[in-house]
Amino acid sequence: MAVKIDRKIKGYAVVTPDDKARETAAPAPVADREAASSEAKDNVIQMHERIERPDVLIGSTYKIKSPLVEHAMYVTINDIVLNAGTEHELRRPFEVFINSKSMDHFQWIVALTRIMSAVFRKGGDVTFLVEEMKAVFDPRGGYFKAGGVYMPSLVAEIGAVVEEHMKSIGLIHDPEMSAHQKALIAEKRKQYEERAKGASAAVNGTAAAREEDVAVTGEGTSFPPSATMCHKCSTKALVIMDGCATCLNCGYSKCG
Question: Which residue has the higher pLDDT, 1 or 66?
Answer without folding.
Answer: 66
